[in-house]
Amino acid sequence: VTADLIFYLLALLTIVPAFWVVLSRNIVHAGFALLFTLFGVAGLYAWLGADFIAVTQLMVYIGGVLVLILFTVMMTRVPQTGRRNRGLDRVVPATVICLAVLALLWKVISGTEWASKGLGEVQPTTAEIGVKFMTDYIFPFEFVSLVLLAAMIGAAILIREGRANGEEEAEPGRDADPELGEDQEVQS
Amino acid sequence: MTVGLTHFLFIGAVLFSLGLFAVMMRRNAVGILMGVELMLNASNINFVAFSRYVEHGINGQIMSAFIIVLAAAEAAVALAIVLALFRNFGTANADTVQSLKR
Q: A118 — alpha (psi -120 to 50), left (phi > 0) or beta?
């Protein structure tokens, strides 16, 4: 019973901030709500006995991806002036599509006889995962490290300051309004 | 009601739908990326839950480890693209960035 209670608390910790991530007008609030969602997901992994994955989730998502997201949010903020198009015209189709996807998934989940064997006993997984990475999954493991290297080089090239031909960089926030930026673009 | 496999699958379904909603509704490119992260987490929950309830092994956990690594790589490249967009266009708004060069 205690385990079930912990599960429901973790589920709440995952789902409720996820609504906030999606619905919040303020992108910084959404980023901080994402922190709680990722933490709840890590808790669910721990509940399922996946200790290595839970710690990886904490280190990679919360320690890496979330910090990157918050940095980018804060570096790309433009003071909001004038009218804001809040995208209200997209609310209805987006809601319909999402509810349809949810209903379809729920129909599949509840209508299938899953071959669930119940919970086995919990044992530490780290050593076994390490052995599998070095034996059965050696090729995907090496391939993923290649992907990481490519992503690192690509990210560094994308955000490097200045172009090779000495072209002037645009001032950040200069032409936030596309109509105003139109005639400046002709000169460059 | 004891917690079973369907509980986790339902959490995954809700997270996936919310991520899809964020991808469709957000105007900020970083907000779209947050939606993608939610969807990846939903798939990860499914992998771990299946490996615990159905397979009783760790192959599903290894898949989710790969997904976490690829999500980190994807986030790094996507955020670099957002920063480059911001430097060139002065905005991170996915709707107003419509041309390939400034």
A: left
